[in-house]
């Protein structure tokens, strides 16, 4: 018998939530009644009318001087007045776990404490159940407490090793990493060998997920030191974290080991390899990067080209071209065009074109093929070296391969010709270029102008300017000097560079002559002029893309800048970091260019790793606003690790989408990180954040945010308070808003807007008593609710039987705000109509008319609904006639009330006419109108008319929806027309519509009652095919039909299929079936149904337990009966007296009399009185066992309960005690004398 049966029963955790909610409401009601009284007295004594401007200014000034530190903590403590931090008992913990594994916990209710093997059984059972229901944090916490409790009570005998491993595995899976860590390494400290690879792998993954790198690496090193191999996923997660945190050496080591153990890599591992190679190359560890790539290639020949590119770029930066070539040969990889062009460009710049050509031949030997950009690079550098012949040879070779030169190549050739003085041939290049289909752009003309200006061929410059004008490259006015425009194209100030005629006869300045012999000279700083011209020509040989990108960014032309970046990468050039940052910042400012940001950062990773903090913040913000949270989180984590300053806007941009998605784990992590870094959102984002926080009912964060805002923005504290009240009042947290006001009552006075927000919130939450209290307080301050609040309050005041208050409120508003009169009267009349007091409603309607207010459509609808509810046909007719005369539109609610009344009164023809009227008013709502009519016609049994209406709908091509079919199914079922109900139900399903649970329930149960089990099973089959749950009534009807036919096995198979296919709803109730299975001797099935209910958090009735217990007693399975009896008591269920009698009798017959007596003692402690038969049965058992002392004590208890033992029992005890000597402890009487005296056989003298 369990010892805990003797203790008072505590609240079951399965019912705790509801009771807790009730107690909290009780607390809030008491608190608010106190709060309003204290708040009212404080505000009335400390401030004048809050509606005045001066009062508002005083409040604002007062708020700015208040210290709000600790506000959140104080309010939170009041929000949880019933928090109980006491350690849970074993019973509470078992109750929590019993909703998952009731079949196991049932065996432990009778034990005073658990042994290690019991804990192991619990853990094994829960672990197997996790495969079906998943791992739940609260359940694992309960198991952890049980585990610790068992360890404390059994310090001499340690928990079994299997328990440790399962417990640790569960802890890791729910994120309780420290607990799992301590548990595992406690065993290690005791010298116990652990070789469970999976647990340690999960632990490493957990630490990596929480970004606790040091601990993750420690556990990894421990595993490897013990010869354990982490899982592939563990390796992947750890490498990714190491790379993100730029831990090069351990990342290299871990990835190398992963390749050794697992060989071929997948996409995620390939990405990790890319990041590691970038990291290694960035740190100058090219050899390590090279080695890891060689290792990976042994198992996975398809390594990303980005990996080879990064290694090549690193070699290129070191100018180690020999090792670069050997790398390509060793890995048998043909370099990409981007890599080769970068290398060739670098060699040309550092050495010569000849050296680059030799290296290029080596690349060709391993399979590289030159493209037009490669030839363009060789041509450009040849021109810069003055080797025009080589450049032309490259051009010829290029053309022979069918490659079309790019415009940069033509520009280089033109510039090269100018450099060697072949001025006349420059124009030929332009013509050749145009003949081959490459149109020149302004850069080509700029090179030509520069070359001609250098040679002082200004006549050709003029013709080029006119050509540019005709080609649309520039716009030249008729008054503008072409040479002036040419100097502008070259970047000169026209005022500083002029071409003048030499008219000085004494001192000649002539430098050259024009075509008619005029002497000319250049009026400018010749050195500056020549240098700029030379720079233009040199730049055109090797394009400087960075300057081009900078120019496009200055013009805010992002599309052109991106095209240039792509071109730059092809030419093997690099973008200067300032220009790269400028471009990224501009792209981040445009939501449409976020994908471009991703591409440019991926394509230029080394520059991306060098971005400044401001740009990185903008990138995170852009990613977050676009919803690219994975990329935003990765970059933000990297910034945190590198201790880069993170802006408030960045944290806000990250938190907003996390709040929207509701990912609490990640949200908490970034929220805490933001708070540690003194995050402060702007005033504009405060409300947006607060709305999302309150949507998820994260009270702590809402209060924390409020406190931060009040402390950080002292000048706008009043506005912050108003926003806070508004948001909480509209998100179902008005109670919390009042608690905040209670904290602020010394410095914040409720004004008109605040009262309205709070009252509106309480009304929307259905807490009208609190809204009424606020209304009283508001009226005491001579403040009046706004119109929408009045419309909410007045009907509820009428409903709460506070007529006088509603009327008084109406009188005040009519007097103070006449413009509200009509709406207030409507609200008052509506309130009286809703409560059925039509006399009052009509009185105020007449009063309204007397005050000059007229009846309108809204009020007419209210009155129609009220009189329909009262079944007043005469009044309804009058109002309906008025509505028709005035052409007022009847609401759907009015139409519904009218149709109900007409059908109930037998005026079906009127209901049909009304349908036509409403259809004329609302043709778009035709289906709704027909649905209402069909429902009410069927509710009064007019199925024939409904068939005509369905035909009419078909003629009008009105398609029935789910509501229509549900009304038809339920309606025909009400009319006892099962065949029609079944017809519409099957038609509905065939059309892909889902019937309501009621429709399915009614039809299936009716089919079963009518003996149509096969049809019911066919319907069930259709439901199962679609994965529709079978509710309690449906399962009971089908199962009972099987049982009534004696098909017990089929009944069990049907219920088993419901469980296997997960078609059992959470609110399942098997009480009725449990009784029937017990009657059919299927006790195990009954117990299984009890288990299903408990797993769905539904407590079976005591009658179900009684039935099973009696069945087990009949089969002499007393231990099973005792387990269920113990579970029953722990679920706060009380067994029936006859069940207890059977238990007592069964245990006594089995020779377990002491346990039988425990049932009696437990009854007495619960305040129940055992029956006389129960006492006699136990006494008889003790007599049989010759335990006369126990029998005597129990007989005394029996007499104390008001029962007299029979003569046979007395005499048996007397005869058996004749030879017993006992000390007299009751006035020197022996045991026999005492027994006879208490039995009434000896009289006191």
From TrEMBL:
PPR repeats lie at residues 196-230, 371-405, 406-440, 441-475, 612-646, 751-785, 821-855, 961-995, 1066-1100, 1101-1135, 1136-1170, 1171-1205. Pfam families: PPR, PPR_1, PPR_2. InterPro entries: PPR-containing_protein, PPR_rpt, TPR-like_helical_dom_sf. Keywords: Repeat. The keyword Nucleotide-binding does not apply. The keyword Repeat applies. Belongs to the PPR family. P subfamily. This is Pentatricopeptide repeat-containing protein. It comes from Stylosanthes scabra. The lineage of its organism: Eukaryota, Viridiplantae, Streptophyta, Embryophyta, Tracheophyta.
